[in-house]
Structure formats: structure tokens, C-alpha cells
């Protein structure tokens, strides 16, 4: 607003110097301009855009508007739309990402990291021909998804020819507040600068009016430009002073709205109608980028408003745009309710091909019940739910219920809203929705049971009463034969299975199987997968892995809870790793929308896969994040669930005091409530901690608390997972018969066919307990060469340690060194200090120096070694990138550095190079 002419400005020397440095910098940078409303941020953005254009930059501009703040990627569209010609030059994976973002193909939205990497590549391509400046005004109104991507990109512009400048209002919170981008505070003008701007833009003011404006504006550039005409139009200075000063304590922006209000009231009705439609549709303030998501409302015949200083002309499109966001908000505030409803009705026609925009405008235009509008809102809620907008979906479903013409439709939609709210962890909102309709809280409450059970389960771990209530509701729906009850029945069935999973009780599970068998064709196919995977994989797990993989392959535009349920099933059959990219994308999407329960479940699953894959530092962070999130919202079940996993992680690392502290906390909370899933984890913590310490008697006693030798306690999910623990503890305490019995029981139960991890554990247990050397060698070989073995480095290292000890005793020290070194290196990489020291002791007993024998790997960083291991296991660069959240190009660069360090020239030689050890003396 301080612009005078020909790009000159009044004051702002410090800001101009910073912006000039940004434009002329040799590499990419980002900068946030933050200041009060009207202070002059837009003028500085205009200045830097003109400066960059003069230096040969291509300038792409965008503006945030409140009307789009809930529409995912709406802001990002503005930045990317002008760059679409470059997308065809990207690789296939990145093109597919943009196809989803631009709505050219269906699919789950990408994660912030995946999309951010794709955007960085697109910007780099565009900037390779001409330096690029991205300018964003009113960034506080950008949608959450776009802010996250802009923050991700802004932190990684070093090394490129791309610059990003964002203007933010300091009085409005936004995601940019935590984006960790450099900031420049834009303050008010000094007294001298304010006088200079006022005299240049409004010369000839009499001294009293001039002093009045300067006193009221207090250096605010917008006020200096807008107040003088208001005072002069009042006809006398006293009236002007009253207009400006008669509201002590009212902030300057509100007084400026009064100024704009006088101008708006002076317009004709037709012009005011045009302004209202433009304001409600989010038409930008100042020159903005052309909007790619269809047509915005075009204000016509509004020259009168432009002449009154309310509108400008967009130089790119020639359309009218609001001069300032305050004009837009003032237009809406001055309109009557009937005028606003009429404007929304007109806008619904403008956006008739956009499901979400049309529905929101129809809802705002409608007062009385209208089934067509309710249905449109319901469709919009379904659409936004698939993109992670749980909170928006709850709002739209609630409004759809209000507009329903029939009581049964109102009840159904309120039930849907309560379900989404409950599943998203919005427990208070779910309870309010249940109480909002008598039909949901009466004597026949199947729909309300879902929300009420979520509250009881998540907040207090109530598995006993929720089992009864949910089971009774399923029976009621089964017996009613209601044609429209299938969706509610599916929700109840899946909820009952989740409750049983946490209960871990054989009697409850058997009762549930019996009940679900009575449903016949009413039983959802996906729920059968959950029933078999979440319950007892030892007895019901045959073929489940293949069914889970088929279900994932069949997912089309899934709801977030579809992903979490199948993710939990994948965990139980140990194929979670291949779906972590999908989980991470969903987690990134959900965590920004307030969908707490879904986010916490996804965090649990991500943490579990990080633990299995040996990414223990990342697992620690995920678990701590989940504890903090769950605790702060009163979701005690999830908080203790995450503490259980953190306890297991601490036990594996040898942090025994911390492990036992967490074990005690989890057990004390879960055991009185009958949450068997967590009490088993508590017992597993005790087993693991004791094994790590070498207290094998204590480990054995903890292990048989989960399952006895030779059997696997029904519906105890930790029973097969602690197979190796029980066998090792038994062997070290002289219970060889019990150890062998348990290993043979695993083979008889078919555990190798259920999951890759159980195959690894079974072969390891059989090898450790075999009396025949040939049989032992066979099973060690089966374990160590299993295609899935490298996905479980902790278990593989323990098996290799046992194998190395056996080799030293049976074939001599030299034969043991290679296997013991592999075990030592793995324990070191994992951070399993106690296990690593034990392995080093064995390696010393084998006559080798652990440091010398692994020296050929010392030059590899942890990330290089991890990439090399995955590549040696047969994964492609794309698959490795998805697993480690890197671009395929970055993976390729790492491998390019790894090959010469290992003295190889091809990918095929990786496995041998990683396993090759220098010979040592057999002294």
C-alpha cells in the first residue's frame, strides 16, 4: 500500500534490502512477511514480484481466501496450475501424484513428503529454464494440506533457483506458524514515513485533517490511504473526527470496515449483489492467479465499486477483484440473511459440477428441510472424508441431518456423523450428536451404540460392557431385517471385532464367532478378514496373508478406517512393511484434520513397522508422539497402547529400568479392565527385558505367563510372537525338552506358512533345539536365507548369534566369525547395546576383532547401509524410496556412493559384498 509510482516505495529500506537479497541470491530461499492488517505486506509482495521480474524471474502468484480454507490442495492448485506444461517431463510416479492432486484421476491423496518431493522436482524443472519466484498473499487462509506442502518445500529450496515469499496476518493463526520458515516482521511506518506517504497520496489536506488522519492511522499504510476520503466526505472535520474516534477501544481494522461500509451502502442494489456473490465465493484481493479448479464467480458491471475504491482490476484476467480482504468481509457483514442466502443459491449454480462447493453453497442457501440439499451434503461429506477431512465431514453430515425431510433420514445422518466423529476420536462431539436425536438415544439404539462404544473404549478401555452392548445391537439389526441397516451393521461388526482384539479373551472371541456366523450373507467380506487376522492367527491364519494382500490391492478410494483395519490385519500376519507408504500418506492427511483416533491407530501401525524394520529412533519418536497426542485428549487406551510398544522398544535396547517402568504402568491400567491385548504386551516387555539382561529364569517365567511350552494360548496375539523368546529362555535354563517341544509345536501349527516373521522364528527355534547337526544347519540356512528375513533384523541377528555360537563349538572359531560379525553389526546398527556386547564377546572368543572384521562397512553411513541392505534384498529404488520416505533419485544417488565403498560395480554383487568378511587367523 506504500507504493507511489514506478515501483518506488515510501520507507521500508530494511524490508527492500532483505527482499532484494532474496531475489539476487544464488540459490533458493523462502521468506515469510508477517504483520498486522493493512500494514503494507501486499505492497511489499508487489515490490518483490516486480523486482524479480526485472531480474528475469518467472513470477507465479497465489492468494489465500477463507472460502477455500477447508478444501484440500485448493491453494496449491494456484501455484501449480501455471506450471502444468512441465509435469509431462516428470517420471511416472510424480505424474500420478499430480493427477490425483489436480483431480485428473482417482486415488488416495499423497503424503506431504511424497507430494512435497514431487513439487520440488516440478519446481526444479520449471526453474531450470528461468529462475522462479512464488508469491503467496494472505497465506493464513490457505488450506492445511497446501500449507504443509509449502512448508515442506520452503525448507528445501537450497540448491535450486526457486524463491518463495509468503504474506501472513499476525492476528490470525495458521499452519505457517510452525513451518520453520525464516520470517521478516513488517511493522507500521515511522511518523516521518507516514507523513510522506499521506502527503504524496493525499496532497493538500488542511493541517487539522492531516493531523487527525496521522493520529488515527498510527503508521498503518492502509489507514493512511483510506481515511482521508472518509473524513472529507463527512463534510466537516468534527463529523470526521467522531467517525474515526467515537469508538474507543475498537481496533483499527474494524474502524476501517466502517469506512468501507459507508462506501458499500452508497452503491446500487445490483452492484452490491455482485460484490456479495464475489465475496462469498472467495474472489481474491489484489491481482491473483487464475483459479484452476473451475470458474470462480465473475463480478460484472461493478465499475461503480471500482470507482469507489472497493475493487481493482486483475491485470492477468481483466476481472474485478477486491482491493483488500477487509472489503470482502465488510460486504458480507452488511448483507441481510436473505441477501446472503440468495447469493449462495446463485453460487451453487455456478459450481454445479463441483460436489463440495455446490453442497456448501446449497446448505447456506437453505432454511427449511430439503432432501435434495441434504443428499448433496451427504455426498460432499463422503468425498471430503476420503481426503481426510473428518471434521468437515461431521459438520456437513450434521447439517444434512438438519435439512432431512424424514425423521429416519435425520437419524441415519446423525448416526453417520456420530460414527465419523467417534472414529476420528472427536468423542465429545460424538456424544453430543447421539444426544441430539431421540431416536439415537432411545430403547432401540443400534446407530448410537457405535459412537457410545467408541467413547467407552477409547477413554477408559471398557471392553466388557461394550462387548455386551455392541453384540446386542448386532442381534437387534439381524433380527429386524431392515433393508437400510447394512452400513450400521458393518460398523457394529467391525467395532465388536476391535473390542475383542483388545480383550484378547477366548470365551468372548468364541461367542463373537458364533454370533457372526448367524449373519450369513449379511457379514461383510472384509470383516471376515479382520475376524481371522485380529483373533487367533495360529488357528485361523492360514491364507490370511494372501487375503489381506488381495484386499489392499482391491482398495479404491478407501475411507481412512479401511486403511487402519487392513493395516492391523497386515501387522498380525507380518506384511505391514509393504503398506507403510500408504499408511504414512493417510497419517499425514488425517493428522492435519483433527481425526485423532484414526491418526493414533496409524501412528501405532507405523511405529510397529519401524520397530520391525530396525528404525528404532524413528519408532521412539512415533510412540512418544502418540502418547502425547492420546494423553492430551483423554484417549487412555491409545496412550497405554503406545506405552506398551515403547516398553518393548526400551527392553530390546537394553534400557531395562525404563522398560519395567512402562511395563508396570501398562499392566496396572490394563489388567483390572481385562484388556488382554495390553497385558500380553506387558508380559512380553518383561520377557524381552530379562532376555536382554541375560536373566533367563525370569525370562522363562514371563514367557510362560503368555503361553506354555508346546502350545499357543488361543487368542493371545503375543503367543506366536514370543516363540523364540520362550525357546531361548528354556535352553539357557536347562529346559531342553520344553524348548524342543515348543519349536515342534510351532511347526505342527503351520506357523511358517502364516507369516514371514513366524517362518523366521520357527526355523530359528527348530535350529536352536535340534540335536542333529545336519537338521540344525538346515533350519539355520532356512531362517537366514528366507526372502523376508531382512525385514526383521533384530530377530535375524539373534538367530545368527545363536548360529555363530553353535558353529564355534562344532566347526571351529574361523567358521563362526562371518555369522557372528553379521549379528554384531546388526545389533550395533539397531542400538541394541547389550545384545551387541554379547555378540562381540562371542566374536572375540572366535579369535577375531569385531572392529577389524567389520572395517569394510565402517565407511557406510547408517542410511547407506540401510539402503544397501534393502537393495540386496531385491527391492527396487522406488520400493526403497517408499520404505524410507526418499525419492527414487535420492536412493540412486546413495547407491552410486555405496558401490565404490564396497568395491563393487553392480547391484547383483551387493549381497555378497555386505556379507563378505576378511579372513583372520584361526589361532
From TrEMBL:
This is LuxR family transcriptional regulator. It comes from Streptomyces actuosus. SUPFAM superfamilies: C-terminal effector domain of the bipartite response regulators, P-loop containing nucleoside triphosphate hydrolases. One of its GO terms (biological process) is regulation of DNA-templated transcription. Gene3D superfamilies: Winged helix-like DNA-binding domain superfamily/Winged helix DNA-binding domain. Keywords: ATP-binding, Nucleotide-binding. It comes from the Bacteria. The keyword Phosphoprotein does not apply. Pfam families: AAA_16, GerE. GO terms for molecular function: adenylate cyclase activity; ATP binding; DNA binding. GO terms for cellular component: cytoplasm. Residues 853-918 form the HTH luxR-type domain.
Amino acid at each position: 500500500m506504500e507504493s507511489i509510482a514506478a515501483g518506488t516505495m515510501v520507507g521500508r529500506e530494511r524490508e527492500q534490502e532483505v527482499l532484494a537479497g532474496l531475489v539476487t541470491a544464488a540459490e533458493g530461499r523462502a521468506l515469510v512477511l508477517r504483520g498486522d492488517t493493512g500494514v503494507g505486506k501486499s505492497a511489499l509482495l508487489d515490490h518483490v514480484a516486480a523486482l524479480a521480474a526485472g531480474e528475469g524471474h518467472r513470477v507465479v502468484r497465489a492468494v489465500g481466501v477463507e472460502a477455500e480454507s477447508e478444501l484440500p490442495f485448493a491453494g496449491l492448485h494456484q501455484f501449480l496450475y501455471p506450471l502444468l506444461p512441465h509435469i509431462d517431463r516428470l517420471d511416472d510416479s510424480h505424474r500420478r501424484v499430480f493427477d490425483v492432486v489436480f483431480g485428473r484421476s482417482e486415488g488416495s491423496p499423497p503424503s506431504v513428503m511424497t507430494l512435497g518431493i514431487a513439487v520440488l522436482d516440478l519446481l526444479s524443472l520449471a526453474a531450470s529454464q528461468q529462475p522462479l519466484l512464488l508469491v503467496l498473499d494472505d497465506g493464513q487462509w490457505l488450506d492445511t494440506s497446501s500449507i504443509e506442502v509449502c512448508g515442506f518445500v520452503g525448507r528445501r529450496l537450497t540448491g535450486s533457483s526457486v524463491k518463495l515469499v509468503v504474506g501472513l496476518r499476525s492476528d490470525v493463526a495458521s499452519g505457517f506458524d510452525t513451518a520453520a520458515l525464516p520470517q521478516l516482521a513488517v511493522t507500521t511506518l515511522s511518523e516521518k514515513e507516514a507523513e510522506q506517504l499521506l502527503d504524496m497520496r493525499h496532497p493538500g489536506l488542511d493541517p487539522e485533517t492531516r493531523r487527525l488522519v496521522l493520529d488515527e492511522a498510527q503508521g498503518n499504510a492502509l489507514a493512511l490511504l483510506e481515511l482521508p476520503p472518509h473524513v472529507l466526505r463527512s463534510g466537516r472535520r468534527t463529523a470526521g473526527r467522531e467517525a474515526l474516534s467515537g469508538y474507543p477501544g475498537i481496533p483499527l481494522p474494524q474502524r476501517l470496515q466502517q469506512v468501507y461500509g459507508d462506501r458499500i451502502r452508497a452503491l446500487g442494489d445490483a452492484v452490491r449483489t455482485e460484490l456479495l456473490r464475489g465475496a462469498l465465493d472467495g474472489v481474491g484481493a489484489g491481482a491473483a492467479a487464475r483459479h484452476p479448479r473451475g470458474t470462480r464467480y465473475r463480478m460484472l458491471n461493478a465499475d461503480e465499486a471500482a470507482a469507489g475504491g472497493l475493487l481493482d482490476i486483475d491485470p492477468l484476467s481483466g476481472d474485478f477483484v477486491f482491493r483488500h480482504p477487509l472489503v470482502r468481509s465488510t460486504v458480507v457483514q452488511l448483507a441481510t440473511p436473505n441477501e446472503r442466502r440468495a447469493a449462495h443459491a446463485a453460487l451453487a449454480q455456478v459450481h454445479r459440477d463441483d460436489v463440495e462447493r455446490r453442497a456448501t453453497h446449497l446448505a447456506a442457501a437453505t432454511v427449511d428441510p430439503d432432501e435434495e440439499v441434504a443428499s448433496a451434503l451427504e455426498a460432499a461429506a463422503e468425498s471430503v472424508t476420503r481426503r481426510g477431512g473428518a471434521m468437515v465431514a461431521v459438520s456437513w453430515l450434521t447439517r444434512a441431518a438438519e435439512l432431512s425431510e424424514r425423521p429416519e433420514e435425520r437419524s441415519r445422518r446423525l448416526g453417520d456423523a456420530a460414527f465419523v466423529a467417534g472414529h476420528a476420536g472427536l468423542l465429545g462431539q460424538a456424544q453430543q450428536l447421539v444426544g441430539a436425536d431421540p431416536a439415537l438415544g432411545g430403547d432401540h439404539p443400534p446407530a448410537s451404540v457405535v459412537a457410545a462404544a467408541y467413547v467407552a473404549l477409547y477413554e477408559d478401555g471398557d471392553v466388557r460392557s461394550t462387548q455386551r452392548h455392541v453384540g446386542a445391537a448386532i442381534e437387534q439389526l439381524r433380527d429386524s431385517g431392515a433393508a437400510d441397516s447394512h452400513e450400521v451393521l458393518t460398523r457394529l461388526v467391525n467395532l465388536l471385532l476391535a473390542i475383542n482384539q483388545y480383550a484378547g479373551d477366548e470365551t468372548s472371541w468364541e461367542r463373537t464367532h458364533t454370533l457372526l456366523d448367524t449373519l450369513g450373507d449379511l457379514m461383510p467380506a472384509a470383516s471376515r478378514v479382520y475376524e481371522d487376522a485380529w483373533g487367533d492367527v495360529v488357528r485361523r491364519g492360514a491364507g490370511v496373508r494372501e487375503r489381506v494382500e488381495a484386499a489392499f490391492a482391491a482398495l479404491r478410494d478407501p475411507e481412512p478406517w479401511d486403511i487402519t483395519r487392513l493395516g492391523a490385519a497386515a501387522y498380525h500376519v507380518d506384511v505391514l512393511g509393504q503398506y507403510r507408504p500408504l499408511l504414512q500418506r493417510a497419517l499425514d492427511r488425517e493428522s492435519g484434520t483433527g481425526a485423532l483416533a484414526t491418526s493414533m491407530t496409524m501412528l501405532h501401525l507405523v511405529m510397529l513397522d519401524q520397530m520391525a524394520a530396525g528404525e528404532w529412533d524413528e519408532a521412539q519418536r512415533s510412540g512418544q508422539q502418540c502418547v502425547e497426542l492420546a494423553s492430551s485428549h483423554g484417549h487412555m487406551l491409545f496412550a497405554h497402547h503406545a506405552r506398551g510398544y515403547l516398553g518393548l522398544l526400551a527392553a530390546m535396547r537394553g534400557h531395562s529400568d525404563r522398560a519395567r517402568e512402562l511395563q508396570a504402568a501398562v499392566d496396572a491400567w490394563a489388567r483390572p479392565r481385562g484388556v488382554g491385548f495390553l497385558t500380553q504386551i506387558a508380559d512380553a516387555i518383561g520377557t524381552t527385558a530379562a532376555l536382554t539382561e541375560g536373566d533367563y529364569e525370569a525370562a522363562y517365567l514371563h514367557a510362560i505367563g503368555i503361553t506354555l511350552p508346546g502350545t499357543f494360548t488361543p487368542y493371545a496375539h503375543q503367543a506366536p510372537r514370543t516363540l523364540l523368546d520362550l525357546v531361548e529362555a528354556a535352553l539357557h535354563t536347562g529346559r531342553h525338552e520344553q524348548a524342543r517341544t515348543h519349536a515342534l509345536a510351532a511347526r505342527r501349527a503351520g506357523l511358517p506358512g502364516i507369516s514371514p516373521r513366524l517362518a523366521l522364528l520357527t526355523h530359528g527355534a527348530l535350529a536352536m533345539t535340534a540335536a542333529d547337526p545336519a537338521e540344525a544347519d538346515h533350519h539355520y540356512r532356512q531362517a537366514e536365507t528366507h526372502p523376508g528375513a531382512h525385514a526383521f533384523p533384530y530377530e535375524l541377528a539373534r538367530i545368527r548369534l545363536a548360529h555363530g555360537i553353535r558353529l564355534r563349538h562344532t566347526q571351529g572359531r574361523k567358521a563362526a566369525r562371518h555369522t557372528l560379525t553379521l549379528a554384531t553389526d546388526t545389533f550395533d546398527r539397531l542400538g541394541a547395546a547389550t545384545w551387541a556386547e554379547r555378540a562381540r564377546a562371542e566374536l572375540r572368543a572366535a579369535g577375531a576383532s569385531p572392529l577389524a572384521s567389520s572395517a569394510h562397512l565402517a565407511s557406510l553411513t547408517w542410511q547407506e547401509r540401510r539402503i544397501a541392505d534393502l537393495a540386496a534384498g531385491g527391492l527396487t529404488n522406488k520400493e526403497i524410496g517408499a520404505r524410507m520416505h526418499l525419492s527414487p533419485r535420492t536412493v540412486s544417488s546413495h547407491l552410486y556412493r555405496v558401490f565404490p565403498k564396497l568395491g563393487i560395480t553392480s547391484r547383483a554383487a551387493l549381497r555378497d559384498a555386505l556379507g563378505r568378511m576378511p579372513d583372520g587367523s584361526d589361532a
